[in-house]
Structures are given as C-alpha cells and as structure tokens.
Specification:
about 10% helix, about 70 residues, two-stranded antiparallel sheet
C-alpha cells in the first residue's frame, strides 16, 4: 500500500499521482534560468509518492494541512 508523503492518505497506483525522483538538472537558459531545464538520469525513489491534491496545493503555495474553504 502506498501513502501520500504529505497527507498520508492511501494512493491508488492506478490513478493519477506523483512519484519522487532524483536526477541531474541542466539549468535552462531562460531569463530566470528556470525555463527549459531538464532532468537526466532520473531514478525513482522507491515507494515515495504524493497525491495530486497535495502537489497542487504545494505548487500554489498552500500548506497541505490547510483544509478547503468550501
């Protein structure tokens, strides 16, 4: 059974989710040095996954502990 690294709820591997990987980044050449980067020699970190909800919250600067306002 896989659990989200952040909220600890069960993650169904057949449904959309994220998995943690490590690798080597070649920085992009955009204005902010953030565009166009790529990660090579990716290696999955075994059994470390996250649900889409938690990753979406984190991408938007919201704590995963914050409950919905609705």
């Amino acid at each position: 059974m896989l659990r989200c690294n952040f909220c600890k709820f069960e993650v169904d591997p057949q449904q959309p989710h994220y998995r943690k990987v490590v690798g080597w980044e070649r920085p992009g050449r955009g204005v902010s040095d953030r565009s166009g980067s790529s990660i090579v020699m990716r290696q999955p970190v075994p059994d470390v996954v996250a649900c889409v909800g938690c990753v979406t919250k984190l991408q938007n600067g919201v704590s995963v502990e914050q409950e919905s306002l609705i």
